Every structure is written in structure tokens, then in C-alpha cells.
Write the C-alpha cells for this entry.
Amino acid sequence: MCVLTGAVAAIAALAFVCAPVVARTGSGKQGQANDKRAWVRVMDNFFDPRLVAVNPGTKVNFVWKGTNRHNVRFTKVPSGASRRGSKILIHGRWTRTFTVPGQYHYTCTLFAGMRGTITVKAPASGQSPER
């Protein structure tokens, strides 16, 4: 019985880690149409969270929290979107606003395997993305 419980707990933890994170507002509410800010921590050799889902017009703040040098380089972006990324930093913050719906894959060019994805949701019908 304990082995089964441990396996169920491991699967639940994996599902939690792999689920996309929705941008949060200052009020702490998640997933609402007015979410305009999200955060990604640049840790020692990984991004946290690795998957982020946001609405068009959302500012994503990348905050360096580790002790190693890292950068953010976009390797695949939607058609018409910029590949603009950050400089190499050890500490500090870099912010980018995402307006074009689609998936943005990024990496740190200094550490193999350090990857993340930002998904910008399509605007609700009748709305256009902010520019």
C-alpha cells in the first residue's frame, strides 16, 4: 500500500511541475483576462517556472536569483514576433512584453538543457492584441 501511495504522490508532483503557470496580477488571482504581468526566476541552471501561459500584452519579468551567469535567447517565436532576448547577467531583471499569440521557446546559451516556453494565448474574439 505504501508503494502505491508513493507512486501516486510522485505522479501528482510531476503533473504539478509540468503544468503551465498562468500569469499573476498584483492581487494574486490567476488566469483572469486582465493579467498583465508574469515572473520567471532565472536560477542556477534552470528557469522557474519552465512553462508560462499569458494573455497578449503581458509583461514577463525574468529575475536572476542564482549565482551563475545566464541569458535569455529566443530560439523559436511566432511569425512576426521578435527574437529579442536579454544580455548575460548574474543578477538583476529583464522584462519583455509579449503581444503576438503563439509559443516562444527560449534557452540560456551558457548552460545546455536550460530551456523554457512562454505561450501567449489568442485574444478573445473582438479584441486585438496590444502593441
Q: What stands out?
A: The helical segments are 2-18. Strands lie at 21-22, 37-43, 46-48, 51-54, 58-64, 73-76, 92-98, 102-107, 115-120.
